[in-house]
Amino acid sequence: MLSPERLALPDYEYLAQRHVLTYMEDAVCQLLENREDISQYGIARFFTEYFNSVCQGTHILFREFSFVQATPHNRVSFLRAFWRCFRTVGKNGDLLTMKEYHCLLQLLCPDFPLELTQKAARIVLMDDAMDCLMSFSDFLFAFQIQFYYSEFLDSVAAIYEDLLSGKNPNTVIVPTSSSGQHRQRPALGGAGTLEGVEASLFYQCLENLCDRHKYSCPPPALVKEALSNVQRLTFYGFLMALSKHRGINQALALPDKGDLMHDPAMDEELERLLAQVPGLVNSVTASPEASCLPSRTPPRVGSPWRPLHHSRKVDGESDGSTEETDESET
Amino acid sequence: MKTATRSLSAFGDSSIKTPSKSRIQQGCHSAGPNISGDHINLVSSSLSSFPIPQRSSEEKILYSDRLSLERQKLTVCPIINGEDHLRLLNFQHNFITRIQNISNLQKLISLDLYDNQIEEISGLSTLRCLRVLLLGKNRIKKISNLENLKSLDVLDLHGNQITKIENINHLCELRVLNLARNFLSHVDNLNGLDSLTELNLRHNQITFVRDVDNLPCLQHLFLSFNNISSFDSVSCLADSSSLSDITFDGNPIAQESWYKHTVLQNMMQLRQLDMKRITEEERRMASVLAKKEEEKKRESHKQSLLKEKKRLTINNVARQWDLQQRVANIATNEDRKDSDSPQDPCQIDGSTLSAFPEETGPLDSGLNNALQGLSVIDTYLVEVDGDTLSLYGSGALESLDRNWSVQTAGMITTVSFTFIEFDEIVQVLPKLKIKFPNSLHLKFKETNLVMLQQFNALAQLRRIDQLTIDPQGNPVVNFTLWKYYVLFRLSHFSMQKINGTEVTQNDMIMAERLFGILAHVASSELPQYRLISILGDARKKQFRYLLESKGKKPGIINEENNDSKRLVGENTNRATLNYTTRDFYNEKLEEIKEKKKFCKTYIEDLVKEATEINMKNEALQKLWPQMFIELVRDAVIEIRNENSYMKLCLQQITDQK
Q: Can you give the pTM of this predicted structure?
């Protein structure tokens, strides 16, 4: 991270690459929005909290969609938040429709657009009946690919259409860097007669795309790996392969498929909450708090009106986060 | 002659004095001197097959005007010769099938053919003096051939197979008509019987009676054991001023609860009903009851009118709602498709409206509880019905601003919303909370509930015990998790029932299990300032709704303040899960745009400043070594000559002074 090349960039570009300005602008905007409330406990505190939350990934909660998709970090945070909040739904084994997943997304981001959810659902269902039920893990992985790489995928779709209709975008630029890839057949028009397009040709176009464009793309090596086994593929087949690829997944937000339901820290928290359900005589957990009188407020949130000089318990910790979130953030 | 008339009158009298059918028969058959058949010899003539009765001349002189041939095992009417002055002829209890051979007895006054096998009335056309004709217990199917019997006084046709009253309209001297035990299904065609005083129609299948008001002398009417079930079918009786005695027993009408007083009320002229005298008390009771009936009818008529009006209004509201939904759908589809197809004017055909079940709230029974506060206007409907407040159509929401009496408002425990957008309902929930503090059960039908998030809005109410979300018009019900989400978000209400099913402990646990982490994240992981801003937002919104209402009082706002503070204390856990209606949300985003623009320029300025400073710093960094060397060199050069440097410094010091 602290490589010398970063100093080679002109200032503005450097800031832009790290999306620092986005966060600065948003911070100031938030400040303006809530200045009566924030002025109660100081601007310095506000900025601390803001950037802490950016680091933790909680800044995107209940924010508008334009902010949520503004930076890759935001997208990753959102995906993680979604996973953590609704992992229990998946654990329960319910199969839900696309609309219901969209509802859950809307709980975290009120104006999340339906199109994205629909596209994600299409990946899972392979463009089939859109009312089918999907499992949580299937949907989540597909959604991750769709949301994080949405611009990339749009371009890929355009390329795919072109290839299907016989046009080869490769004729525009010809980077013949590796000769080993020159195995493409001379019959360019035959690319789309069978189902899908030819894998190697497709990959070439993708590589060009990644070089050309600045927005985030999956690492080309991994993409190649995903495509290595097939001769031909359809668009949704490709996306499905991407979503199932472990390497790509690890580069992003979510844990591996096997670990998807596994979050011991949150489970502990959940048990504690369950113990507080009123009227529950035989508590499920062995936690000592089970014997406490049910109080609905979780212990860590102080009164919102307490002014600055009463230090909250939380402040003492490293970066203002609870222990549980610390653990899960690794 | 005198004896004959005397006996005839005695004969006739007895029949009048004994109105019951059986006694007529008995009267007919037992009056008059007993003439046994012993004195009569029936000789069959060789000329014809008919027997010819012969009797001794003493008998002929003694009983010159009457002849009795009962129980003679006759199968045909015998030819009676030499007795042309006969007045009374008795053929009872024989097997006669046809009336014949009596055309010569033109002085006949009474003819008794009871209990024979006669199938058709015939052979009577010459008997112009006939006054009593007894044809009971035969097999007559049709009343006919009575045209010349204009003097007929008593006509007895009981126990036959007659299905229709006909061909008797010329019998203007007829006083007694007995048609009991026939197959009559209705009574009409009675005009012309101007002397009729007694009409016996017992044991038929009569369902309705007509023309009785055309009988000016009718006093006794016996309708026992028929099929009369309503007073309307005998309504002509009310118009008959002469009727004083009537029987209905054995009819379905007599079993009705309103039978007696209805009859009494409609037939004030009656003296006897079902063979019992009518007392003054009974008459009074009857009129009282009849008045009550009338009122009841009026009331129910009014209520049915109201009901109809309500139904029409609801239909209208439903149609409007449907229209709205279609327009909205078309709009969103066009947005999505981005098509440039020509926008054809929507031909919304009202007839394609899908049928929906008639919405009828439970109407209060009894006349005492009239419907309260029924306000019906074409585009919306507000109905208060005991403990339920029903609102149809978005216009109905304004009615919450009305001045509801404390009593009425206090009684309301159920509020039902139909054909209203949920987003609009959300805006009036604070009003609902204040005006109807006891409303514990909310029902939503056709309110466009599509997102789980919308349930967050219900959290601001004081309390909900029951929630009913009708699947019709509320797509959210199709989601698998909706109930659990409701239980989770509104857990502080401890709801008892959702859509009619009890909420079990397991449901609560499941809800918590599914969404507990969401609450945890929403509360503990949000930075402090976000918490404040979200909660503050919610409260600001509520204030805004309140202030926009018409009946604002400062006291209420204070109460609201306390309330919401209490609310915050209750469940900070979930309080951040709010619902902003789409319009408000977009509004807010619009407002933020300005700020965002400003922030952008501000930050840009800062960045520019920072980069400038950075550049300068960098430039300085680059130049500094050189500059430093220069400085050092200058200094060294300066001090090269110690003495002259000392002198120069001292000089500088003195100059300064």
A: 0.60
